[in-house]
Amino acid sequence: MGRVVNTNDPGKRRNALMRDGAELLRHLMLQTTITDEAKDMLAQLVYTLREVDEGIEESAKAWEKRDYWMKAEEFRARWMWAGSTSDELRQLIRREDWAVLPMFLVKLMPKFSEVTVTKFTRDESLWRGAYMRLKQEPT
Question: Which domain holds residue 41?
């Protein structure tokens, strides 16, 4: 019997989510006003950052299993921004504080600088309805 290989490991999921986030940011930077679609994109960015944050612990535990404690802690520290940024963006959306949004997005751009987006590959089905889902979450 051959080896069972998990092709959907946390690193691959994180890379795909970072690609989603980078494309969402690029789309948002092209917006001139806060439209319903922009709100959906922002809400999807919240969900994307949450998923990134949720996968961090899984990756860190894999390092700890191999007794790389320092590497696991460095990894957690490197990605700590994802959860806090998700929460901050969620609050911004719930308050509809659109005036601070441009500076928030500019502050977020360096986190996605390693992701090269030469062509948009995600379509609106990724973010459609995300704003309503976010607004329906308990506070």
Answer: 10-124
In the chain, the percentage of residues whose pLDDT exceeds 70 is 95
Instruction: Tell me how many degrees the CA angle 77-83-84 measures, rounded to the nearest 5.
Output: 90
Number of domains present in the structure of the chain: 1
Whole-angstrom CA distances from 34 to 30, 41, 99, 118 are 11, 10, 10, 24
DSSP 75-91: HHHHHTHHHHHHHHHHH
pTM surpassing 0.85? Answer: yes
Instruction: Measure CA of the first residue to CA of the last residue in the chain; give whole Å.
Output: 50
Burial class (CB in 10 A: 0-12, 13-18, 19+), 136: exposed
88 within domain boundaries: yes
- 99 domain residue, yes or no: yes
